[in-house]
Specification:
The complex is a heterodimer.
Chain A (H helix, E strand, L loop, with lengths): L2 H11 L4 H24 L2 H18 L9 H23 L4 H14 L7 H11 L3 H11 L5 H8 L3 H23 L1
Chain B lengths: L1 H13 L12 H52 L3 H11 L3 H15 L2 H11 L9 H11 L2 H7 L1
Helix pairs in contact in B: 3-4, 4-6, 5-6
Classes of the chains: A mainly alpha, B mainly alpha.
């Protein structure tokens, strides 16, 4: 944890400087968190809701933040958990099976007005969607966000070995999907 | 087949870091303001909820008291003879309104079915929300003499 982060946390915990510090926190992390959530839930409106929920949770719970992990790790953990519980809720309310939720997410990509990718990128995103949720998150964090295994391990509270295995299987599955698709 | 694999690997590699998603215009510029508005709204709702939680025990005690009073009052008017009921009421509460209500209550208990039906049909053009035992008692005391009431029973 660097000095700036320590100072930011101290300001967030102090009632006098909380609002200003919170604005700074939002400005600093909003984009990284947005893209992390967006890659999990895909849809912009859902991402916007979840991102707001994440920051509201931070606002409400900052006094209880124990500082045994970095602020960034804590934020990413909240964002990941919120995104996963959003997918679970969606599954409970509207769709029944994993295949159906994957179909729903695939449709989200197909119909998303905020998706600019070409056909290859669409295929790539659809291939990533075939992965189980947690494997998809590991893949996104490693591949797109280029996070270190140690950082991912802190966020997801999973061992580095398990993450390496997970990423390896994810890459294999994506390659297979793309191979099948190009046949 | 081998060539195809190479192509896929190339394709996989070439996609690195490219983000096919985008956001609405000015989304990140306005996000903090929208978030602040939502937090303020949530805090206002929470304050209302907190206030309600604070008053909840008082409201519960009030409800129990009302219920207890009803449990004492209703059997005393229904089960005790009408005269003693009035005495009990007049003895405990000396206001004129209450004694009038007591008289009306005892009158209603003396009415025959026909009298009550006639009173109901006469009052049916009234708004059903305003129809109460008081209206009924008023109607009967205005349209029947005590003799008629007692003679029908």
């Amino acid at each position: 944890m660097d000095l700036n982060e320590k100072e930011l946390i101290a300001n967030l915990k102090s009632e006098a400087s909380r609002e200003q510090a919170f604005q700074l926190l939002v400005k600093t992390y909003q984009q990284r968190l947005y893209w992390h959530i967006r890659k999990i839930v895909l849809n912009h409106d859902d991402t916007d809701d979840i991102l707001q929920n994440v920051f509201i949770k931070v606002w409400k719970n900052i006094e209880g933040f124990r500082e045994d992990s970095s602020l960034f790790t804590w934020l990413f953990r909240i964002a990941t958990n919120e995104s996963l519980s959003h997918l679970q809720k969606q599954r409970r309310h509207s769709v029944v099976s994993i295949n159906e939720i994957n179909d729903y997410l695939s449709e989200s990509i197909e119909s998303d007005v905020y998706f600019d990718g070409d056909d290859i990128q669409k295929k790539f995103q659809l291939a990533i969607l075939q992965l189980p949720n947690k494997q998809r998150i590991v893949f996104n964090m490693k591949y797109f966000d280029e996070m270190k295994y140690e950082e991912i391990s802190e966020v997801l509270k999973t061992s580095v070995g398990a993450l390496k295995a997970s990423y390896h299987f994810a890459v294999k599955k994506i390659e297979e999907f793309l191979k099948e698709d190009s046949k | 087949m081998k060539e195809k694999n190479v192509n896929i690997e190339n394709l996989f590699g070439s996609l690195k870091k490219e983000n096919p998603f985008r956001v609405p215009e000015n989304y990140f510029e306005t996000f903090a303001d929208r978030l602040t508005i939502r937090i303020k709204e949530e805090e206002r709702t929470n304050n209302h909820r907190r206030r309600f939680i604070y008053f909840r025990p008082i409201m519960a005690i009030a409800a129990i008291l009302v219920l207890a009073m009803l449990l004492i009052y209703v059997p005393s008017t229904k089960l005790l003879p009408s005269g003693s009921g009035n005495i009990a009421q007049n003895g405990s509460e000396n206001s004129i309104d209450d004694s009038v209500n007591g008289i009306q209550g005892s009158l209603i208990s003396n009415f025959s079915e026909e009298q009550l039906l006639a009173a109901f049909s006469a009052l049916s053009d009234m708004d059903s929300k305003t129809l109460s035992s008081d209206n009924l008692a008023d109607y009967i005391t205005a349209n029947y003499s005590s003799y008629e009431i007692l003679a029908d029973n």
